[in-house]
Protein 1
Amino acid sequence: MANLDHAGLGSPGPAAYAGSGTPVHVAFGPRFAVVPVFFRFIGTFLILVAAAMWGLPGSTVEADLVLIKLGASLFFLFCGVALVMFHHAENVPEVCFDPIRRELRVLVKSGDGQPHVVLRRGYDSLGRAQFRGNRVELYDFDGRLLIGLRVTDPARRTALESQLRQLVNICN
């Protein structure tokens, strides 16, 4: 990366990108791999509890308790479905690192399945990038963390590092 001026804006035009022009896509995911499994387990348990409230022996069907039982079972059902779907692959936003436009974009799929850009940030507006193990962290000029991504694929990590090396300050 070129030397930065005192305002942190950098040189007016970075050098042309010399690597592959293929954008790198990285999906957001949980910080720990056990989190989605834990949420799915608890969600499944809540769905089963919602059904068991009506079917297990010993559940009384008195008129004044039916509304309370209905409300509790619907609450458990909706919370269980939400926990099961929380880390579903279709709901995960995706980050696209585009070397041609020199920007990163955060894409979210809408109800019709088409991706929509919810955040667009140029490489020249990034302060630094840091590669730690299987994580990539992008920081602003003032040191604030912008995005932390888990990149488990070594080929994708290498492509992303070679793409950012020419345009963003990389720290270890």
Protein 2
Amino acid sequence: MYFSPEFLQNSLYVVAAVLIIFMIGVSIYKISHNIKFWDKSFSLAAVVLLNVLYSLLERFVNLPYELSSVVTGGLSLVSLGYVVVILWDLHKQKKTLNNK
């Protein structure tokens, strides 16, 4: 299956826009309901947004390939770590609820 570079770049714009809108919506909800603003899921969203924005920056600025792969790879690993931590916390919460 082949995806054109234009399609992939446009998809990246859509992902960035949806993520920004989602983060703004969640922020408004958390502030209006006095919920802790910065948590693990918000950190994950911020790291993913940073990765997307860095990928968008690459289109306009010619960055060295090594730097690009280190930054995007590192941010992807951090994202994966946050996903694992969030899933582990959900598993612990479910286990705690089942024991009560």
Protein 3
Amino acid sequence: MDPGPALVSILRQGSTLIASIHTALDDSQLTRFQQDLIEQIGMRRSRGVIIDVAALDVLDSFGLRTLRDIAEMARLRGATTVIVGIQPDVALAMVELGLGTGAVRTALDLEEGLAYLDLVTGATKHPDHSVSPWP
């Protein structure tokens, strides 16, 4: 039986893990994603983590709390986390509901997330080191 398309992919680029969420996840899938990603950080000795949420058109409070928890667990394991790809409608809803990412860094897209991690951790090797999303 075909399990269907992957809900999340976790790829490695240098010492950075890039986790792309491809579709909305229920609470148990989010918890599993959290466990898998934290395990991968240790196994691959990652210094940076990017969580790409560009495919999501909604992000509820449990999902956001899980992402913040992932970032804190990653920090405790020595990795810096950046959430990328928050869609405009999702950002608007988050602000209206009083939800935020806390201390977790965000970036517009994968390229800016990689550039930020390169600046703070040297975790990736980027061909264009002049890209800086922050002054």
